[in-house]
Amino acid sequence: MIHDTDRGDKNTPLLRIDAVSVRFGGIVALDGVSFDVRRGQICGLIGPNGAGKSTLFNCLSRLYECSAGRIEFDGHPLTRLPRHRMAGLGIGRTFQNLALFRTMTVRDNVLVGCHSKHHAGFLRNAFRLPGVAAIESQARARADQLIHFLDLDAVADREVADLPFGTQKRVELARALAAEPQLLLLDEPACGLNHEELESLGTLIRDIRDRLNVTVLLVEHHMSLVMGVSDKVVALNFGKKIAEGSPAEVRAHPEVIRAYLGEEAEAEAMA
Ligand SMILES: Nc1ncnc2c1ncn2[C@@H]1O[C@H](COP(=O)(O)OP(=O)(O)OP(=O)(O)O)[C@@H](O)[C@H]1O
Questions:
Q1: Under DSSP, is residue 159 helix (H, G, I), strand (E, B) or coil?
Q2: What's the CA-to-centroid distance between 207 and ligand 1, angstroms?
Q3: Which residues, 6+ apart, have CB-to-CB distance to 149 below 8 Å?
Q4: Among 6, 30, 128, 239, which residue's CB has the most CB atoms within a 10 Å radius?
Q5: CB-ligand 1 contact for 52 (6 Å cutoff)
Q6: What is the DSSP secondary-structure string of 197-230?
Q7: Three-state DSSP class for 90?
Q8: How many whole angstroms separate alpha carbon 195 and alpha carbon 205?
Q9: Domain 1-90+182-271 grouped into CATH 3.40.50.300
Q10: CA distances from 50 to 1, 9, 30, 183, 236 (A)
């Protein structure tokens, strides 16, 4: 619908995490974690509380610096990029606790996302120089497409603060997609959703990949969602990668069972 279909070399992983470690004083939040995410993949990242999932997301958004290791995005080292170059690079993100402009309408929130990619520059905007109107109308068209894609037409002109939590989460998704990311980082998208919303979330994540050509890295505690939607799953525990593979492989991995359920459950599962 909206995205370029062929960006970058198809054989290079879109995201390469290579021996990444993050330390906070004496705490090792990530300890030599490596894995790749291929273009067009939905990759689930799981692990018990404190495993290091958010720390990894924060490294990908450059909110945290890696203490060691390297992250490559689309073949380029992300770890050396200045923070101000992150906007427009092609990594979109949603947050566990929504990060929306609550007193703005749905449409304006999505437009903010469009402008983070196609800003016309302060002087151009201030003097309404040629090109500004075209950029503005492209942004509006794109916002309308995404509002429709996320089934937000009926609330497009309502203030975000007045909407149910599940709807606000879809607004956040629309805004992240408005910047035309190649990679979308979803931080616990199922958290706080009701049963019905949960059911449609899996389909929506697949649609984002299939119809918008966006690669997805998903942190999620809701196991049936992450196992149902992911092409591959990476499991962390105490900052280390303990398993990587298909959902079925990771679900059956003894270290994953031990991390989630304790050693007794592992013995039961093996029996
Ligand atoms: N800014 C920080 N300062 C100090 N310690 C931190 C910081 N951020 C994370 N940590 C620590 O790093 C470890 C990994 O935390 P992280 O939040 O990445 O885990 P998580 O897998 O996302 O957990 P959850 O599922 O509960 O969100 C934890 O021990 C946490 O306390």
A1: strand
A2: 30
A3: 1, 174, 177, 207, 211, 212
A4: 30
A5: yes
A6: HHHHHHHHHHHHHHHH--EEEEE-S-HHHHHHH-
A7: coil
A8: 16
A9: yes
A10: 38, 35, 10, 24, 9
Q: Which residue has its alpha carbon closest to ligand 1 atom 2? A: 24
| Residue 51 near ligand 1, beta carbon < 6 Å | yes
Q: Are strands 215-219 and 15-24 parallel, antiparallel or unpaired?
A: unpaired
Residue 154 identity: A
Residue labelled with tokens 């007193």: 103
Say yes or no: ipTM exceeds 0.90: yes
Span 95-116, pLDDT tens digits: 876 677 778 899 988 988 776 6
| Cα angle 55, 61, 67; round to 5 | 50
Classify burial at 146, counting beta carbons within 10 Å of its beta carbon; exposed 0-12, middle 13-18, buried 19 or more: buried
The pTM (predicted TM-score) of the whole model is: 0.86
Quick: pLDDT tens for 228-238.
999 999 999 99
165 Cβ inside 6 Å of ligand 1:
no
Bridge-based pairing state of the strands 68-73 and 91-94: unpaired
Shortest CA distance to 69 belongs to which of 86, 55, 54? 55
pLDDT band of residue 124 (cuts 50, 70, 90) is: low
C-alpha 28 – ligand 1 centre gap (Å)? 9
Phi, psi values for residue 124, rounded to 5°:
-55, -45
Structure tokens that stand for 182 in this block: 């190649």
What letter would DSSP give residue 53?
H
What ranges do the domains of the chain cover?
1-90+182-271, 102-180
Residue 201's DSSP bridge partners are none
Grouping H, G, I as helix, E, B as strand and the rest as coil, residue 72 is: strand
CA dihedral 261, 263, 269, 271 (to 10 degrees): -160
